[in-house]
Amino acid sequence: MSRNREHKSAGRRNRGDQTQARPQTRQERRAMQREAQIMAREEYSAERRRGLGPLVARTKRQAELIRHLLNKELVVINGPAGTAKTFLTTSIAAEALERKEIEQIIITRPMVECGRPMGALPGDEDEKFNPWIENMMEVFRGKFGKVRAANMLANDTIMALPLELARGRTFNNAIVILDEAQNSTQEQMKMFLTRKGANTRVYVCGDADQSDLPRGTVSGFDDVIELGLHLSSSWHQYFEFEEEDIVRDPTVKEIIVGYRRMHTRNSIRQVA
Fold first, then answer.
1. Which of 9, 30, 76, 109 could cysteine-pair with 179, CB 3.0–4.6 Å?
2. Rounded Cα distance, 88 and 56, in Å
3. What is the number of structural domains in the chain?
4. 172 and 102 in contact (C-beta within 8 Å)?
5. In whole numbers, what is the pLDDT of the chain averaged over residues?
6. What pLDDT score was predicted for residue 48?
7. Would the pTM count as exceeding 0.85?
8. Range of the domain at 156
9. Per DSSP, what are the bridge partners of residue 265?
10. What CATH number has the domain bearing residue 107?
11. pLDDT tens, residue by residue, 9-47
């Protein structure tokens, strides 16, 4: 009997030793998985806090535009949706501010509605204007972080200004970005361009084929493109993206090409 007890005890000890020698128990695996998930979330949060990082061109054409944005005082950028016009100019401005090359970023656009009138939106003037510049603020939050970008907007380090309210101002030591410039009038464009002060770069972004101005109204964007013929290339640059430069999504390129072909076909029918 005693021998049998000793044999069973030894067997239990051996089985216990074997259990302890296993790499992981189920509970240990679950604990390690939870720890890995926590570390992954922390790493993701840290990456978000670090922001978008330095601007890197995705195409040769983007690299060419970036060179102009860094070296010219006035850059006029024409191109279809999805070519990263706003993203590139906003990123360049954010990095210049971070390097203390400038003291302020001004972002503006015409208050021309495409759909719901601005007056129907809730809030005061600033609150009504904020949704119109969200695409640019998203880039700033990626560059500076959410809290810092909000503080910069609050203290006018980043100034959001409707184009209609720019008259009488002078912008010094700044980068000024006019978005949706195809919706500006001739008078507004002239007023805007003459706000430029010392150590200031001006970026004008638009799509000449996508204006929301009333029919028959000449766009200020068309004016500034023609004006470039009379300006020195030493400080001014006109740059045009084509449909093949669209980087947003392959379907966006198909949509824009499809619209162009449809409109061309309809125009031919009307002439005939």
1. 109
2. 9
3. 1
4. no
5. 84
6. 46
7. no
8. 60-264
9. none
10. 3.40.50.300
11. 555 555 544 445 556 777 777 777 666 655 555 544 444
- Is residue 156 a contact partner of residue 181, using CB atoms and an 8 Å limit? no
Task: In whole angstroms, give the CA distance from residue 100 to residue 142.
Answer: 18
**Which are the contacts of 84, defined by CB distance < 8 A and separation ≥ 6?**
58, 62, 247, 248
- Cα–Cα nearest to 79, from 182, 191, 220: 182
* Residue located via tokens 């500034």: 224
Coil, helix or strand at residue 242: coil
Q: How far apart are CA 159 and CA 109, in angstroms?
A: 12
50 in a domain, yes or no?
A: no
| 100-142: pLDDT as tens digits | 999 999 999 998 765 445 555 555 566 667 788 899 999 999 9
Assess if residue 117 is contained within a domain.
yes
Residue 104 β-bridge partners: 174
Answer yes or no: is 40 within a domain.
no
Q: What is the amino acid identity at position 159?
A: M
Spatial CB neighbours of 189, under 8 Å, sequence gap ≥ 6: 181, 220, 221, 223, 224
CA dihedral 223, 119, 86, 141 (to 10 degrees): 150
Q: How many CB atoms lie within 10 A of CB 156?
A: 12
SS3 56: coil
Q: How far apart, in whole angstroms, are the C-alpha atoms of residue 85 and residue 206?
A: 8
39's CB contacts (< 8 A; 6+ apart) are none
Residue 1 lies in a domain: no
Cα 80 to Cα 208: distance, rounded to the nearest angstrom:
8
Structure tokens at 135: 């695409």
DSSP bridge pairs for 25: none
- What is the length of the chain? 272
- In angstroms, rounded to a whole number, what is the distance separating the alpha carbons of residues 231 and 98? 30
Residues whose CB falls within 8 Å of the CB of residue 59, separated by 6 or more in sequence, listed in order: 245, 247
